C-alpha cells in the first residue's frame, strides 16, 4: 500500500521511484531526479536518499551510473530471493534484508536491498512490504538525527525493518496461546492441526528471514567497514540486540509448537483410551441381557425355571441388578 | 513486595526511588537526593548507589544528567523486554539481566538494568522481582567488603539475582519428581499433561532468562572492561560458575520432562493394549453362551437334544465350563 | 544427453573429449588435440579449456602430462564418489563438486572434477549431469567476460552447477506442497508415506551434495589461492551466496517434511479416534434391539407382556424411539 | 565407608582428617598435624598431602591459613554442588570434580575438591565416594612415581576418579543389554518403562558429572598453569583420553536407550495391531452361529426349513463348516 | 585369519610377531629379530617395520627398549579400548585407530596401535581385524613407493583401515535398502524391528570408531609433527577425505534408519486404522440379521407378520438386501 508522498519539488516521481531527495544539515533541501543524484552526493555536507519500489532494469542502471555501483550488486537488486547479507563492493556497501509484515492478517515476506556509499543511500523494495515513507517522515522531524548522514539512515531503515517483525510475532503468539488453551483440554481437530502446521511453516520462514540479519547487523559494527563511522556502532549494536530478541521469540514459539504437538499426541492417546474404556464397559453391560435372554430363549422341553410363576420377573430383576452393579463398578474405577 | 527501608537522612525518597546513598570506606555516609549524585560520585573514595523501581522517563533523565549516561542506555532502561547483555557506552557499563522469582507459587520474570561507572552504580528494576534492599542491608554489615567499591556492588547484585533462580528451580524439580512418580504407574491425566506442558514453557522462559547471563558474566571478567578491576575477576568467575550450574539444572529438567513425555506415550500405549486385551477376552467369553443359546433357540421340529431329559442342564454346564476354561486361559497368558 | 558440438577445427573429437579449445582475448582461436594443450596453455594471453566426459585412464594420463597434474588428483578424477572439496596440488587447483539434475522427473546425481592452473581449465564429468556446452556457448558470446581467463571459467561452471540445483528443489517443493494439502485433510495413504520417505532420502542426498560446496566456494575466495585473482572474489562470493540459498531451501524442505510426518501422525490418530467413536456409537444403538428382543424371546410361561394385544407394537416403538434417541445423542456430541 | 588407615606417627587424626603426611624422595617421612603443614610444604624436596572428609568450617580455615588459600575457594569447598572446574587463585590451583560410584547397586554421586600449590595437595571429599586411601597406598609402594611431587598426586587422584566411572557404566550397560533383549520381543511392561526412565535419568546425571571433566583435564595440560610441570602433561592428556572414553560410553548408552524407546513404541504398536486382528477374526467367526441361529429362531408360521427332517443337522453343519473356513482363511493371512 | 608369510631370513617369527623386517631403497633387505630392530632403525636409509598381533607385556617391553618408546604408550598398547588419537611422546608418534570388518557377515571391531619414529614403524593389532600382510605384500611390489620411508607406511596402513570400512557400510546399506522396501508396504514385523534396532547400534559403534579418525588424520597433516614430512601431507589429506566420506555415509544411514522408524510408525498406524474400519464394517453388516431375527424371535401372541404366508421369505430378503447395500456402501468409501 504505497502512498506516494506529497512532493514539493518540481516534477512527479517516475514509476519505480518512491522518493529521491537531498539532505543537508538534517533538512531536506531538494527533491531531485535520479540522474542528478551523483552530483549532489558528491557535495560536501549533502547526502542523497533514494527510495525505489520494484524498479525495472533501466532505472537500476541509471542509479548504478550515478554512484558507480558494482554490476553484481545491480544484478542481485534486480533478482530478489537473496539471503540477507552485507557485501562490500568497491567503496559501497550492499545490504540485503528480508522483511515480514502482516497484510490482512497473513504473514507476507518482502525483500529490501540497500546501497550505502559516501553521500548516498538507495533502498530497493521488492514484494509486499511497508513503505519507508514513514521512516523518512519520522526522521525529517528530527534534524539533529538526520544530520548524522547516510549511515544513520541505514540504521533507521534496519531498525524499522526489525521493529516490523514484532507485530507479526505477537499475532502468532496470540494464535498459539489460543490454540494451546483448546489443545490441552481436548484432542486437536483437523483444523487445529492444519493451523498449527501452517504456523510452524510461517515460523520457519520467519526464522530464515530474521536469522541471517543477526550476522548482517553484527558485521555492520565491525571495524573494517569504512561506510559506518564508529560513532554509529552503538546504534547498530542496538539493532543487533533487537533482532536477537526477535530471533529468540521465534525460536521459543517454534519450541512451544513442538511441545503442543507432543502434548496433543498424548491428549489424543488419552482420549482414545477413554473411548476404548467406555466401549468396553458398555459392551460388558449389554452382554448380560443378551446372554441371559439367550439362555432362557432355548427351546428345551425340560427347563424348570420357565415354569416357575415368577421366573420371568426374577430373571428380569437379575439382569437389571447385574447391569446396575457393572455400571457402578465401571463408574467407580473411572471407565465410565 | 517492596518494603521502603528506614531512611536516616532528611526527606522521604521520591516515587520510583528505592534508595539513593553515598558510601565511603565501606559505610553509608549519607542518603542523598538524586540530583546531588554526580557531585558525590566524583569525590575521591566515595561511591553512590541508587536503586530505582520502574522509574518514569523524567527520573531517568535526571539520573542520566548526573552520570552522563548514554541516550540508548536510557532508552533501553525505559523499555524493558531486553535480552541480557553488557554494553559499554562511553565510560559506563550498561547491564541487562532477567530475574526469576516465585510469587505465590508461580514463576514470574522481571528485568534489572544496571549502570556502573566511576563512583556510582544505578539499579533499575522492572516487573515483579525481589527488592535489592536485602543485598544492601547484608553488605552494609560487612564494611570491609563494601569498601571495595561499585564493582563489588555489581557482583553482589548479580550474585543475588543468580541465587534467586535456585528456589524456582527447586520448586519445579519437586513438581517434576512428583509428576514422574504418578506418570510411570498410570497414563497421564489431562491435568498432568497440562501441568507438564506448563512446566516446559516455564523452563523455556527460564532458559531464555538465564542462558544469556552466562555470556554476560563471562564478559565481565574479560580484560577490556576498565570498570571491573581485575581483583574482582575471581568474584565474577564465581557468579559465572553459579549461573552455569543454574543453566545445567534447567537443561536437565528440560530433558527429564522430554523423557517423561516419551515414557508417558509408552505407558499410555501399554494401557491401551491392556484394555484391548481385556475387551477381546470378555468378548470371547461372552460369545459362548450367545452362540450356544442361539443354536438351541432355533425352532426346528427335529432337534433331538431338546427332547433329552437333562439336555438343558447339560448345555448349561457346557456353557459354564467353556467360559471358565476361557477365563482361565486368558488369566494365564495375562490378558485378564 | 551430450550433443557433440559442431567442431570447426580439423579432426573430430576423441571419445571422452567433449571439447578442447584455446581462447585468447575472449575469443576461441582454435580447437586443439589434447596433446598440444600444454604448449598452448603456456602462451601469454591464451588459455585452454578442455571438457572431458567419463574419460578412461589413458586419456587422463595424457591430460596429466600436458599440465603436470598431481598423481592423487588424477586418481581421484578416475574414481568418482568423492566429497566436494578444493585441493591445492603444486600450482594447480583440484575441485570436486556434486551436481544434481532432473532427468525424466527423477533426481540424479553426478560429479564434476575441475583442474585449474595457469592457462588452463579441465572439467571432468561423471555420471548423469548436464553438459557444460551451454556454459561454453553462452560465454563465447560475451568476449569481455571470457577474456578474464581461466578463473572466470571456473566461476561460470560452479555458478552453472549451483543454478542447476534450483529446478530440482522447485520440483520437490511442488510435490511437498501437493502432498501436504492432501495430508492435512486425511491420513496418508501408503503411497503418500512412501513418496514422503523418498523425498526425505532425496533431500538427504541433496544436502550431502550441496552442503560441502558452501565450504568449497568460501575457500575459493580466501587470499591464499594464487589461481584465483582477487578481482574474481566478488564473483565467488556471489556463488557462495547462491549455494547458501540452495542449502537453506534444502534445510527448510527437510523441516517441512518432518512437520508433515508429525502432523500426519496426529491426523491419523484423530481419524482412529473418529472411527472408534463411530464404532462405539453404532454398537450401542444396535445393542438395544438385540437386548430387548432377546428378553421377549425368552420362553417363560408367565410373561404378561406377551399376552398384551399391542405388546409387540409397543415394544417395536420402544426399540425404534430408543435407537432414535441414541442416534440423536451421538450426533449431538459429535461421535457420529 | 571411610576406613581410617593405620597411622604410624604420634596422635590419632582429627575428625574430618583422613590423612595428613609429608613425603620426600618418594617416601612418607612423617604424619603431621594440619597446623604444621605450611612449614613442611615450604621445605625443599618435601610435599604435604592432606585428605579431608566433609570438614567443618573451622578445619578448612586452619588449612587455609597453612597454605594461604583464597577465600572463594574455601567457601566453595565448604558448599558442595559445584560444577567441575579448574580455577587459579593466586599461586594455587583449585579443582572441582564430581565422582560416581556404586554403593549397594545404586549410582551415587559425590564431589571432590582439590587444592594444589607449591609443596602441597589437599583433597576434600563430599557425599558418598570412595576414599583415596587406596590411591595413597598404591603409590606409596612406587617411590619413583611418588617422588615426582604434588602434581603427580593430582594426576593419580583424577585418574582414580575417572576409573571409578567405569564400573558404574558397565553395570548400566549390562542392564540396558538385558532390557533390550526383553523389549524387542514383547512390549515393555510398566516396570521396564520405569527402569529405562531411571537409567536415562542416571545417565543424564553421569553426563553432567563427567562432561565438564573433559574440559578440566584438558585445561590442566595447557601451558599457562605453573603448578603442572610440562613433564606431567602426557599423564594429564592420558586422563583426558580416559574421561573422553567415559563420555563417549555415556553418550552411546543415551542413544541406545532412545533407540529402545522408539523400538518399543513400534513393538507396542505392532502388538496392538495383532490383538486387533485377533479380535476382529474371532468376532467374524462367532458372528456366523449367532446370525444363522437367530434366523432359525424366528417364529414365523411358514418356515419350510424348520419342518425338514434333517434341517437342524444341515444348519449345524453349515455353521461348523463356515466357521472352519473362516478360521482357515484368517490363519492363512496371519490374522490368527 | 592371520596367515604367517613365508619368511626368508633365519628363524620362524615368535608368537605375537607377524613380521619384523628391514627395508632399504624400497626393498626388504632382511627379516630380523625384534631385539636387533633398534640397531637397524638407526642405519642411514633403512627402516624397520614390525607387525605385532596381541603381543604380551614382555614382547612390548622388548620393542619399547629398541625404540625408547614412552611408558604411557606401551601401557595403552597393552590395554585396548582406547579412543582413536594421535599422541606425540618424545620423538615418536603414537596412533590409535579402530578398525571394522565383516567376519562371517557380522560387523566386528578391532583396534590398531601404531608407533612411528625415525627409522621404524610398529603396528599392534588387537581383536578381530584383517592382517596388514596384504598391505605389506602390495607395497613390497612397488619399491618406488616403499622407498619413501616409514611415514609412507603409516599412510598405507591408515588408508587400508579406512578402505576396510567401505564393505561394512555397503552391506549395511544393502540391508537397509531391503528392509525399507518391505517396511513401506506393510508394518514391520518384530524381526524387522529387531534388525533395524541392531543396525542402528552397529552404526552407532561405527560412528564412534570412524568419527575420531577424521581428527586423527587431519592432525597428521598439521605442520608441527616432525615425523610426517610435508611431502606426505597430500596423501594424508586424501585419507582424511576418504574417512570423511565414510563418516558421511554412516550419518546418512543413521538418518535413513530414523526416517524408516518414523515411516514405519505411520504405516503401522494406517494399518491399525484399516483394521478398525474393516472390523466396524463387518460388525455393522452382521448386526442386521441379528437385530431383525431377534425381533421376529420374540414370543408375542399378536405379531401379524409371523402369520403372513411369505413373511419369512420377505424378512430374509430384507436382511440379505440390507446387508448387500451396506457391503456396497463400505466398499465404496474404502472401509472394506
TrEMBL record, chains A, B, C, D, E:
Record has Ion transport as a keyword: yes
Looking at the record's lineage, which domain of life comes first? Bacteria
| Gene3D superfamilies named among the record's database cross-references | CorA soluble domain-like, Magnesium transport protein CorA, transmembrane region
User: What membrane topology is given?
Assistant: Multi-pass membrane protein
Reactions it catalyzes: Mg(2+)(in) = Mg(2+)(out)
Kindly list the places in or outside the cell where this protein is found, as annotated in its UniProt entry.
Cell membrane
Describe the family membership recorded for this protein in Swiss-Prot or TrEMBL: Belongs to the CorA metal ion transporter (MIT) (TC 1.A.35) family.
Q: What is this protein called?
A: Magnesium transporter
Species source reads: Neomesorhizobium albiziae
Amino acid at each position: 500500500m504505497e502512498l506516494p508522498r506529497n512532493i514539493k519539488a518540481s516534477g512527479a516521481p517516475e514509476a519505480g521511484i518512491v522518493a529521491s531527495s537531498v539532505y543537508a544539515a538534517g533538512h531536506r533541501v531538494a527533491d531531485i531526479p535520479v540522474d542528478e543524484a551523483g552530483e549532489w552526493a558528491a557535495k560536501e555536507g549533502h547526502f542523497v536518499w533514494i527510495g525505489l519500489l520494484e524498479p525495472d532494469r533501466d532505472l537500476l542502471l541509471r542509479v548504478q551510473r550515478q554512484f558507480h555501483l558494482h554490476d553484481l550488486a545491480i544484478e542481485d537488486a534486480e533478482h530478489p530471493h537473496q539471503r540477507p547479507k552485507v557485501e562490500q563492493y568497491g567503496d559501497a556497501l550492499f545490504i540485503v534484508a528480508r522483511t515480514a509484515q502482516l497484510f490482512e492478517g497473513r504473514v507476507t515476506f518482502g525483500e529490501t536491498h540497500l546501497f550505502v556509499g559516501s553521500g548516498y543511500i538507495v533502498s530497493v523494495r521488492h514484494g509486499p512490504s511497508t513503505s519507508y515513507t514513514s521512516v523518512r517522515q519520522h526522521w525529517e522531524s528530527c534534524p539533529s538525527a538526520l544530520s548524522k548522514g547516510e549511515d544513520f539512515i541505514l540504521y533507521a531503515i534496519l531498525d524499522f525493518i526489525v521493529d516490523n517483525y514484532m507485530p507479526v510475532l505477537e499475532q502468532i503468539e496470540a494464535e498459539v496461546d489460543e490454540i494451546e488453551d483448546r489443545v490441552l483440554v481436548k484432542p486437536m481437530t483437523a483444523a487445529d492441526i492444519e493451523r498449527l502446521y501452517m504456523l510452524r511453516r510461517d515460523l520457519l520462514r520467519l526464522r530464515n528471514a530474521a536469522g541471517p540479519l543477526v550476522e548482517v547487523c553484527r558485521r555492520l559494527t565491525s571495524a573494517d567497514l569504512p561506510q559506518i563511522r564508529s560513532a554509529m556502532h552503538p546504534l547498530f549494536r542496538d539493532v543487533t540486540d533487537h533482532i536477537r530478541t526477535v530471533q529468540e521469540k521465534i525460536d521459543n514459539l517454534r519450541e512451544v509448537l513442538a511441545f503442543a504437538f507432543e502434548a496433543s499426541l498424548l491428549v489424543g492417546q488419552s482420549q482414545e483410551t477413554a473411548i476404548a474404556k467406555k466401549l468396553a464397559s458398555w459392551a460388558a453391560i449389554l452382554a448380560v441381557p443378551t446372554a441371559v435372554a439367550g439362555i432362557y430363549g432355548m427351546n428345551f422341553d425340560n427347563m424348570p425355571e420357565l415354569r416357575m410363576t415368577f421366573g420371568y420377573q426374577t430373571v428380569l430383576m437379575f439382569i437389571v441388578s447385574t447391569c446396575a452393579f457393572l455400571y457402578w463398578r465401571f463408574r467407580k474405577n473411572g471407565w465410565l
